């Protein structure tokens, strides 16, 4: 369209908009209107589109529309960026990392219609750098690998790459890097080999040491150490120089195979090249030995890291996982105490791993003792803030998944075990039941198990049994799936 014609069209649109506004800005007397306006506040953790649809259904709204919307969007909304081909790389990263690395976006506008059958909504978002993007609002168009399952993420990442090709966009190095990362999370090592072969055949200029390392990372993470070593040999034969990152992955592969001689040779090779073992190298060695059942070598590798001042809290996790596979509660306690002796406060994941291990071993007393130790160590609480909100004519509770309740006030918090491992959930529920049974009646607590999958339903069944065994009354909270009230009656 010629510029003059474009300008004319714009002028007519502006004139039409002024006319419409003018119709509502006259001095005529006000008239009654059947228009009903609802103010709705969504809490952190609620998904935007599904919450709006649910509100419209509960309020029995047949033909409603969005007047305005402001706020900060993160987690699920970051994933909606996946529907914009021009932001395909952002989509892939949102797919892989979810809310952990997605920057919050401000909602600049949200318009559209709602009905009991669904919604048609358009959204525009802006980030801290001033970038603006928009399109159809999707309901969790893509979820993070960790939250929705790696295989699903790999399929969606592959679909995004195909969509980019069909849209005429050239897949660049970051796009392939993100797709390889999806392979890592989904343990799709064969797909990773195929992607790398495609990259090598069609875009040889994009094959760098970093891309080789990403492939090796997929293979090591997918428990394919022999394949990783074979690809590292190819990498060297093609003239790519190993850096500390490459060495760390190959060292981990050798440790996974229990090949002590090859590992020692690689360390000597690094020293000859004036490269020192980095903390990442030491972690890979510990992880490799621990995963292959070479517990003694893994422990020696950790003590070597301590001796050289390279020890870090996360290095204890592979040993705790090995203790769990052997159901060795006493050894797990040893490594938790060893961590404390080095002034490393065990992380929540470390405590949870130990509690889960005791649960798997069938030792509820040990699990409870570990849970008490974890609470004494002040790990993040499983109690989250709970608020009541009106949805139409219904009062509903909402548990804020990312807002811990420090005071644990009974009316405004809930023990959230919806995303815990089974052993941790059981230990936390037993602790809550003991607190209630020892409290002066009337005393009560809310707890949230979720009710959206089989695992959560199993936890709910166990929660009811645990509370009743302690003499605590348990009732479902009406209209709030997965939310329970435990009460010690007088």
UniProtKB/TrEMBL annotation:
It holds the Pfam family PCC. InterPro entries: PPC_dom, TPR-like_helical_dom_sf. This is PPC domain-containing protein. The keyword Signal applies. The lineage of its organism: Eukaryota, Sar, Stramenopiles, Ochrophyta, PX clade. Residues 32-173 form the PPC domain. Keywords: Signal. Residues 1-28 form the signal peptide. It comes from Tribonema minus. It comes from the Eukaryota. The keyword Transferase does not apply.
